[in-house]
Specification:
This protein is mainly beta. It is built from 2 helices and 19 strands. It has 2 domains: 199 residues, OB fold (Dihydrolipoamide Acetyltransferase, E2P) (Beta Barrel); 57 residues, Ribosomal protein L2, domain 3 (Irregular). It has a 7-stranded antiparallel β-sheet with strand order 11-18-12-15-16-17-19, with no helix packed on it. The chain has a 4-stranded antiparallel β-sheet with strand order 9-8-7-10, with no helix packed on it. It has a two-stranded antiparallel ribbon with strand order 1-2.
C-alpha cells in the first residue's frame, strides 16, 4: 500500500500523508448482508464521560468478518479486496463453492480470483489458507491465531502483523509474536498462513487534529496544564515540573511504566519470554 504525500500548501497538509487505497479492488458500498450497525461504547453516557479522549467521529458500519473460518474443506474464491474502517488491514470478500459469501481478514498481496481453503488436515502452504499449527512447517509466518481451539483468531490481526512458528514442543507450538514475546499455544489451534495486509499503515502521518476527530479521537490535555483540583500534576506558575517523584493518573495512581497485566492471568504460564522493552 503506497503512501501519498501532498504538496505542502496548507498547515494541515504540511505534516500529513494519506493512504492511496491502490490495493483495493472494490471502492463502493460493502455487501449489505455482511454489515451491521453498532453503538459506540465511548464518549459520554447519560451526560458523564465514560471513556476519556474518545467520542464523535464518523459512524461506520461494522463488517462481519469471519475470524473462525470453520467451513472446512470447502474451496472459496476471492471476489474483491475491500476497505474496513474498523481495522487497519484489508478484508477480502470470498464466495464458497456452494454460493455463500463471507468476509475474511486478507493477507498481504492477496489477488482477486485466488482459491483459498480452510481445513483441519494438512493442506497446501499458500498465503491465506488456514489449518491447525500441528500441520505447519517450522519457520512459517502466520496470522489470525487462535488462543483456544475453535474460538476464532485472536492474535496477530493488526495491519502488517504476523507471528513466526519457532518450534514444536509436544502438544504446544512455540510462537514469536509481533511484539517479540515468545509463547506456547496448543498445536490444535488454527492459524492463517501469511501476513496481514496493508503493512504500510504505520507510515501514515495524520497531520492535523481534524483527521483525528474523524476517527473519534478527541484532544488530550496535559495534566500539569490543569488546576490542582483537576489533576495531581496541576498547579504552579508557568512551565514547571509536576512536583512529584513519578507521574500519576488523574485519580492518583502510578502512571507510565507500571505493569498493568494481572498477576494471575490464566495465559501467563504459556509465556516463555516477555515482549521486547
Amino acid at each position: 500500500m503506497p503512501i501519498k504525500v501532498y504538496k505542502k500548501n496548507s498547515a494541515g497538509r504540511r505534516f500529513s500523508s494519506v493512504d492511496t487505497f491502490s490495493d483495493l479492488t472494490k471502492k463502493t458500498a460493502p455487501t449489505k448482508s455482511l454489515i451491521k450497525s453498532h453503538k459506540k461504547r465511548t464518549g459520554r453516557s447519560n451526560g458523564l464521560i465514560t471513556v476519556r479522549h474518545r467520542g464523535g467521529g464518523t459512524r461506520p458500519f461494522y463488517r462481519l468478518v469471519d475470524f473462525k473460518q470453520q467451513r472446512f474443506d470447502v474451496p472459496a474464491e476471492v471476489k474483491s479486496i475491500e476497505y474496513d474502517p474498523n481495522r487497519g488491514g484489508r478484508i477480502a470478500l470470498v464466495e464458497y463453492s456452494d454460493g455463500e459469501k463471507s468476509y475474511i481478514l486478507a493477507p498481504h498481496n492477496l489477488a482477486v480470483g485466488t482459491k483459498l481453503i480452510s481445513s483441519k488436515n494438512r493442506i497446501d502452504v499458500q498465503s491465506g489458507n488456514r489449518m491447525p499449527m500441528k500441520h505447519m512447517p517450522v519457520g512459517l509466518m502466520i496470522y489470525n491465531i487462535e488462543l483456544n481451539p475453535g474460538t476464532g483468531g485472536k492474535l496477530a490481526r493488526g495491519a502488517g502483523n504476523s507471528a513466526q512458528l519457532m518450534a514444536m514442543e509436544g502438544d504446544y507450538a512455540v510462537l514469536k509474536m509481533p511484539s517479540g514475546e515468545i509463547r506456547r499455544i496448543l498445536t490444535e489451534c488454527s492459524a492463517s498462513i501469511g501476513q496481514v495486509s496493508n503493512p504500510d499503515r504505520n507510515l501514515i502521518r495524520w497531520g492535523k487534529a481534524g483527521r483525528m476527530r474523524h476517527r473519534g479521537i478527541k484532544p488530550s490535555v496535559r495534566g500539569k496544564a490543569m488546576n490542582p483540583v483537576d489533576h495531581p500534576h496541576g498547579g504552579g506558575e508557568g512551565h514547571n515540573p509536576i512536583g512529584m517523584a513519578r507521574p500519576e493518573t488523574p485519580w492518583g495512581k502510578p502512571a507510565l511504566g507500571v505493569k498493568t497485566r494481572k498477576n494471575k492471568k490464566w495465559s501467563t504460564k504459556f509465556i516463555m519470554h516477555r515482549r521486547n522493552k
